Task: inverse folding
């Protein structure tokens, strides 16, 4: 009986996610590996909003300012990647095919628990690269659980441990600058995140990324003049929706750029 | 045992006769273009006959369920490995059939010491440019591209009746799914048995069974453009045969 396991199928053809470990003590020169960013997700009224900054850096160099680190995995699941893009994108590609292959071969959706563990399994396969400092990824996974009728957020360490973010999760080098803000807003602002409308959630996400960019050189934030906006997606019972840059531009102008406290 | 050529030919003929006999009880499958994309329709007695293979490719099958399952597995593996290693746009129905399925099915048919695949299959593909491709594959490995739609029939006579019924409408591709669906069911009914009153046959069959419907459409969000239509969507379309 086919088990619907795409990774095993791939391995049968000689594929490995993570190459064999390098020689002990081998290190790459500083500034070669692309990494760092800010990603986060939080639950709002209609589901989950997940956000990713666009900047990719290698050491002190800004390699790219339009990286797309929030990737659709299936109809109700999205992954944001912080860390080394080469590994993160590969994990996302394997996951997308894993979920599709399971659904098509087994004639049913993989359970949310199964999806969450599939990411852990891939991160564990990548441990040799992660501990050498050349392939570490700490993703956030956001999904809408149709069975439980609730948005879900999971975050991972680079070794594959999974944790559920009850209200929000942050990752990447800029995350420490915004984690406290999210806690503060949720606890004492008088408007818990779960009461946010989609528009309020978008505005909060843009403000958080600008805050992260203020304190973290590896986060680009919003560059309105160059029309570089972060990637924001919502995950709701209806599926995944990508927030258009035009909408972010209008909201940024009205509620961030022109808002003075 | 088969050193003499005529014995081999005889055994192949016997095998063809056996397979035709086995497939005579199978249920027809219809794949037609429609304005939204491609519509696949059948009425089955319980076993699923329509499957999603890849982002823009669907499979219709008749025959022994275990054989269908073996070939479906093969298609899924080939499609997903190709889509992962190259690109989803490199996965095409023609490549899957011509280089993957057809040689394997032909080999099984001609190796008289082994069991053949008791199947007839069709693949429907919705191209990125809305181009529609239909391919059919017989149990002997013979495959062909079918312009305008593909049909699976239990016998040559059924196939002829279905083809005639299909040709009664000139162009399906410009018509909405609500209009193409009843036509597809009438084509199915023509394949199910002889007789002129196709609606009467559908009234009888649909009292106890329901239609299985797959739609390929670029209107669907996400990378996969294949969806099984839920009962709630199909039910109103079946009303005309169930109400009287």
Result:
């Amino acid at each position: 009986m086919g088990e619907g396991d795409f990774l095993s199928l791939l391995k049968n053809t000689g594929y490995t996610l993570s190459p064999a470990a390098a020689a002990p003590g081998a290190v790459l020169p500083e500034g070669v590996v692309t990494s760092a960013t800010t990603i986060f997700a939080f639950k709002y009224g209609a589901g989950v909003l997940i956000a990713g900054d666009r900047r990719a850096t290698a050491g002190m160099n800004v390699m790219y300012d339009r990286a797309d680190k929030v990737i659709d995995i299936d109809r109700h699941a999205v992954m944001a990647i912080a860390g080394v893009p080469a590994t993160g994108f590969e994990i996302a590609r394997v996951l997308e095919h894993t979920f599709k292959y399971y659904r098509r071969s087994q004639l049913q959706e993989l359970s949310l628990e199964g999806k969450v563990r599939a990411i852990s399994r891939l991160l564990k396969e990548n441990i040799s690269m992660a501990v050498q400092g050349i392939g570490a990824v700490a993703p956030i996974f956001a999904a809408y659980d149709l069975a439980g009728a609730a948005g879900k957020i999971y975050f991972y360490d680079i070794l594959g441990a999974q944790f559920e973010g009850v209200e929000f999760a942050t990752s990447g080098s800029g995350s420490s600058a915004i984690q406290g803000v999210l806690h503060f807003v949720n606890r004492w602002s008088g408007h818990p995140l779960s009461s946010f409308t989609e528009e309020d959630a978008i505005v909060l996400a843009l403000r958080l990324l600008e805050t992260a960019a203020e304190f973290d050189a590896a986060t680009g934030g919003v560059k309105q003049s160059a029309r570089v906006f972060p990637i924001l997606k919502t995950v709701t019972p209806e599926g995944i929706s990508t927030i258009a840059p035009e909408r972010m531009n209008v909201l940024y102008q009205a509620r961030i750029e022109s808002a003075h406290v | 045992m088969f050193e003499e050529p005529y014995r081999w030919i005889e055994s192949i003929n016997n095998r063809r006769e056996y397979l035709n006999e086995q497939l005579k009880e199978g249920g027809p499958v219809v794949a037609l273009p429609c304005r939204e994309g491609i519509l696949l329709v059948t009425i089955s007695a319980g076993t699923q006959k329509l499957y999603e293979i890849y982002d823009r490719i669907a499979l219709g099958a008749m025959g022994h369920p275990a054989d269908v399952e073996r070939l479906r597995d093969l298609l899924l593996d080939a499609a997903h490995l190709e889509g992962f290693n190259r690109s989803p746009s490199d996965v095409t129905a023609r490549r899957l059939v011509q280089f993957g399925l057809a040689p394997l099915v032909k080999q099984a048919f001609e190796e008289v010491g082994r069991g053949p695949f008791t199947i007839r299959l069709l693949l429907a593909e919705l191209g990125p440019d809305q181009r529609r491709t239909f391919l059919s594959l017989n149990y002997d490995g013979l495959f062909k591209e079918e312009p305008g739609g593909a049909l699976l029939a239990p016998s040559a006579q059924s196939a002829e009746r279905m083809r005639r019924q299909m040709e009664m409408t000139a162009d399906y591709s410009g018509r909405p799914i609500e209009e193409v669906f009843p036509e597809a069911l009438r084509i199915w009914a023509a394949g199910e048995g002889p007789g002129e009153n196709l609606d009467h046959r559908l009234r009888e069959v649909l009292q106890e069974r329901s239609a299985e419907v797959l739609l390929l459409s670029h209107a669907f969000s996400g990378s996969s453009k294949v969806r099984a239509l839920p009962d709630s969507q199909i039910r109103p379309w079946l009303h005309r045969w169930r109400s009287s």
Q: What stands out?
A: DSSP finds seven helices and ten strands in chain B. The longest helix of chain B spans residues 65-85. The helical segments of chain B are 5-23, 65-85, 93-110, 156-166, 177-192, 198-206, 231-242. Chain B touches chain A through 17 residues (CB under 8 Å).
